[in-house]
Amino acid sequence: MKMLACLPLVLMACLGLVPAAQADDAGLPAPAAGPAAAHPVGRLIIGLREAVPAREAEASERVQALAVRSRLGLRGERALGPRLRVLDLEQPLAGAELDGLIARLAADPAVAFVEPDARVRRHALPSDPLYPGQWYLQGSEPAAIDAEAAWELTTGSSGIVVAVLDTGVRFDHPDLGRSRNGGRLLPGYDFVSADYDGRFRIANDGDGWDADPSDPGDWVSESDTRLPVFSDCEEEDSSWHGTRVTGLIGARANNGAGVAGATWGPWILPVRVLGKCFGAESDVLQAMRWAAGLHVAGVPDNRYPARIINLSLGGEGSCTAGYQSVIDELAARDVLVVVSAGNEGGAVSTPGDCAGVMTVAGLRHAGTKVGYSNLGPAVGIAAPAGNCGDGYSGYGPCSYSLDTTVDRGTTRPAGAGYTSQLEPNIGTSFSAPQVSAIAALMLSVNGNLSTSQLLHRLQTSARPFPAPGWLAACHIPLGSGDLQQNECRCTTSTCGAGMAHAPGAVAEALRPIAAVRLPARVSAGQDVRLDASGSAAACNRRIASYSWTALDGLTAIGGADTPRATLPAPASGTLGLRLTVVDDQGASDTIEMLLSSSAAQSEAPATAGNRACPTPITPASPNPQQADSGGGGGGSLGWAGLLVLVAGGLYRRRRPWPTPGRPRTSRCRAAPLPAGAARGWRCVRR
């Protein structure tokens, strides 16, 4: 029986081989009805309880006798080993006929197990011509997230939405595109407010909040730097930062062009919060709430609430009360916020240091901390950030760029393009979207996962950091001036739980969720009823068994193998209890609870929910005024936007790291703002 349970796991998980059944809309392998396959099967593999004789003639006689007993039409058979035989059927069977034959064979006392000779296929690799250079999605480098292996389980559900709060996006990029044209991008919204004097120099699109999150470009000219609003900004070309981040999560796969995103099915919701040089915290907070489906005054409600929000941005200082309040509000709605750690080599700043977010540090390809990445206890996990390899002098190809979508324009849009080794894309801004994509894959197979469960399972599935003895360990920053801008050896106190690992995370998501409903009242010596019927399995799975255990080893539990258990409350002291639920694929989840003479306590949910398989989303027709070539215009700020302008400081995107060989350090200072505005922080590039 042990071999029977193991073989499917070996075939599908260890070797990355999948049956021929096609994926459903949620991106999951179609469920098998018992041991039978979805297609006609002409060959079976059986395991015998005893080794067959060495003489082939005698072995064949035993198999022929088995065929007669089981009413099996046998065309031929051959050995696979001492106890394994391959049986060729007279004709292929499917459905009930195949199920019946397998049942008869399995019931024979000579047979240990029987299963169809499953079809195997190559790994699900995209056809995109630039995919071979996307090393971070593959498994060849220690730090790579190995999305390839995860794609064997799911490529993502169209029932999941990931919001990218950034500089906006280029809808005209063929590897992104609007949903109405077969692309990955939902309509989104622009939350970049007017300047403090009512003009739109930061927004750079002629207006404030509107329904067009297109990126018009965020270049800063030499003349811009002479204006008070840009006084601490540097001259630079447009970054197309939001388009880069979006491509990492969801560039269209198998379209014969460009790159592939880490997810193939989920929708991307572009939300513009950053303009030229920076954006306002108040805009980010409103945009976070809107993206999660909460009402924002003066703005049409979001028809496509996101389960994941990616923030590749940040500002100086510690977590603000405003950020923490909104993050808590979103967590209550099961929305995960993923934040990049930042690129100064120091301590993580806001909002990456807020409680309840997944902050992502940056790794070199070898799994060590890339020099520019921020670090510290606030980091939850680490992922590739891009680096140019050992001994790089600042010239020639950058070996470990994170290739993605971009626009070719240096100021205004000039047409779709891609980053490359010669035009590299590196920075923790691009570590975060890889983790956002992994979370989207996890929710695609188990939409019941709460924010805390996503955080826990992402970290549990992380791979340990390599520990090269020749490299100094990273240390927790001692203060704002303690910068570690060289490569160092990651630890769990500086770079998070480990290296993000897509297949491990999806496997964690596929585990069921144990839940228990506790009684409102408990009395000493009286029976206590515990209800685990609210537990839930992942998509296309079911709970197969329940097991209740008293940790003292003595207390008898009624219904210990059923969803509902009964036991007496202790007369005094506290009794520990454990519940384990197992699904029909052998995956399990365990929770513990405490029972006293007066109360029952557990951190487990009372119910795990009923949305394991996300409902596919079919986007409605967008506003006809939105144009693919639009630059972000078409609306007005409105009173709601004016009222929130003074609520917070100025925040910047986590910018791509500067040209290799020309590192820039962080420089933040309290900035005097115009009359009527709150005091805030302005920082140089991230």
Written account of the structure:
With 686 residues, this protein is α/β, with parallel strands linked by helices. The strands form 7 sheets. Strands 6-7-5-9-11-12-13 form a 7-stranded parallel beta sheet, sandwiched between helices. It has a 4-stranded antiparallel beta sheet with strand order 2-3-1-4, covered by helices on one side. It has a 4-stranded antiparallel beta sheet with strand order 17-19-20-21, with no helix packed on it. The model is unreliable at 1-37, 622-650 and 655-686 (pLDDT under 50). It is built from 11 helices and 24 strands. The protein folds into 3 domains: 2-116, 2-Layer Sandwich (Alpha-Beta Plaits); 127-511 and 628-686, 3-Layer(aba) Sandwich (Rossmann fold); 514-601, Sandwich (Immunoglobulin-like), CATH 2.60.40.10. Strand 19 and strand 20 (588-596) form a beta hairpin. Helix content is 17%, strand content 18%. The two termini are 56 Å apart. Helix 5 runs parallel beside helix 8 (432-445) and helix 8 (432-445) runs parallel beside helix 10 (502-509).
- Which structural class is indicated by helix and strand composition? alpha/beta
Radius of gyration: 28 Å
CATH superfamily of the largest domain: Peptidase S8/S53 domain
What is the CATH topology descriptor of the largest domain?
Rossmann fold
Query: What about the largest sheet?
Result: 7 strands, parallel
Alpha plus pi helix count: 11
So what's the overall shape?
A: globular
